[in-house]
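PT: before anyone asks, these are the final sequences, not the draft ones from last week. 798 residues across everything. Please model them as a single complex and drop the result in this thread when it's through.
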Amino acid sequence: MTCDVLVIGAGAAGMAAALSALEAGAGTVFLIDRDTRLGGVLPQCLHSGFGEVIFRQELTGAQYAARWAARVEAAPICLRLDTTVLAVSPERRALLSGPAGVEEVSFRALVLAAGCREVPIGALALPGTRPAGVFTAGQAQRMVNLEGLTLGRDAVILGSGDVGLVMARQLTLAGCQVSAVVEQRERCGGLPRNYRRSIVECGIPLLTRTTVSRVHGAGRVRGVTLRQLDTGEERFQPCDTLITALGMVPERELLRPLGNPLPSWVFLCGNCHHIHRTVDTVSLQGAQAGREAAALALESGAAG
Amino acid sequence: MSSEERFDAVVLGGGLLGCFAARHLTSYKLRCALVEAREDVCTGISRGNSAIVYTGCDNKSGTLKARLCVQANRTFEALCAQLGVPFVRRGSLLVSYGPRGDQVVRRKYRQGRDNGVENLEILTGAQAEAMEPGLAPGISCALLAPGTGVTDPWALCFAACENAQANGCRVWRNAPVTALAREGANWIVTAGPHTLRAGAVLNCCGLNAHRVQELCTSPAVRVIPDRADYLVLDQPAGPFVRHVIFQEPEQKGKGLTLVPTTDGKLLLGPSEQPGGEASDRAVTAQGLDFLRSRAARVVPGLDLSQVIRAFGAVRPNPFHVRREGEGWVPEERGIHSFAIEHPHPGLWSLIGIKTPGLTCADALGAMLAGEAAAYLGKDAPNPEFDPCRTPPPRPRDLDLPARRALVQANPAYGRVVCRCEDVTEGEILEAIRRGAVTLDGVKRRVGTGLGRCQGSWCADRVLELLSRELGLSPWEVTQDGPGSPLLGGERRDL
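LR: through. Structure below.
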């Protein structure tokens, strides 16, 4: 198989990139995602605040994704869902794997829109046990909002970034007692509207200059030790669930074999470029990357 | 409840030692069984260690440890080839930074040579630094042991168990031993719902081995566990060193060990744990501080932001005990050799097998099985014994045509579930078919959740597969056995 532009990741950035690459004249555009649906992380975002710039409306993440997905599905894009890109080679070939088979695709330009992953608790190398009941915020969001699962009865949330705050609210609404959102900095890390909705409206204590210094529990989480960073004071906070919102890391591992600096035919956009605060800038950056990738593909197509 | 079943030999405990003992029992014409207390094998001491296959330089000449270790190291490739388990002979460097360390290097060189370890070489500091530029400068000398290897201890344990089963050994899980009694020439073992009658019993119960033996004898040797911490660094840090590195410190205490693992990560540890009493696996702040401060000195360029996990492991230290009043107290000094108790005819207990227990597991199993077979008077080889085990397919290790063919035959091998480690749904289903019943059971078999995201992407997908394949509600699926449900709160109907 060959194509002009190969887009990895069909979230906000990838969908915009694929559509704009097509509009900019790319002949064949492949859009690949390991999930079975379009939208990346958006379908699990049932809170509003998406699309204020692009649609001048406050949509939920799922609604925002659905608008873009409708356009993608209507466009002549070669869509490969339930498909993972195993490797990208310097010879401009990508190896795809899915239940339908393993295939190699040659491309002229590559758009990496693979998003980001969450920093796991393991990265903190905390003292204590390694019980069940510890989830990253995004994982918790997917399990609760998309899979209809319940995580626990009482939770502590480590990290007051937007995902942490959003989960504090959603867990509360789902009937889970959130005893604290813990933040090591002086102030809340998330957007003011998330602070208002989660901390103020749900009445959840935000403990600043505080961290989790130990995890307790043999099989399942039994509690955490909270340490006040200025006084060094520690106290035990019982809980059966610990949600971590420790930040995001751009997902760029696929590019490792391509060396540094990256070849001119690689375009990064969305959260694998840098961590964005709103989805609108992700889509805009994706569209830009798609146009540039198409231009390069057409140029190298003409040359070749 | 099952009625009494008769066997020639029964192995108690499904760790590395028990699984290998069972494997070797099946190489004789014996009816044998293995009972494991927990829901899966490889859940005790075997689940946490340094993954190093030692050469035998560290063991006192003339001891069983030295003999078995040297012999086992030489044949480890062959063993891993038979069982389909990863093994890489990375070689090791014992590096010294001063006169005290130099003495240790020279002593281990002589000891290794006396033990029959081949190709040992004392290197100058400059030679060692050229080989491992990531090590802090100032190395005074180093011992190069090219034979040191690295394996996957979990894979080894599962492989031994599967091989024993394939050769006819019965394996029961969820079967803790609650009674062990002699009746005439036989042993009666009560394990969970099962009652087994056997001529020979091999007690490989790890941290509980002394308790099991004390079901039928008075105390002689007991295990007093200590624990140590490890840090795991993600793949970018893996090639930071090429060899297994043992740092010999100038001050009293333990040095740093660095292990480039078979899957390309870097393991730091074990930490020093002076006088630790904890028998749990909780990671300690003290152990982590030790590892971080040693790493800063020994491998100053190592990027510790690549840490993806810290874990604690337990070591079983055997001690002779003596009666004092009502109770039993351990002797001051621990037992340095492999403690193999043989208190009654037909009963062997491995109590406190620590380093190099992983290296010697197969050799110890062979030795014990041989003794048991001879005792039973049934030491004719089993002509049908097949030492080879068919490993589960691993798409990531296949070339493109082979991977393609595998997916064509079974589409589940095309769907990547764990993106960090490139593990497919097909592998997870096969792991469940081979006995995984928990998230950790799947993890230890196929590596889901071992990578940089630590399972935050795949855990709920593995949960779904476990739930579906085992016919459990998602709320019944555990991370690591009873008491560790992944989900909490009110169940819903899905």
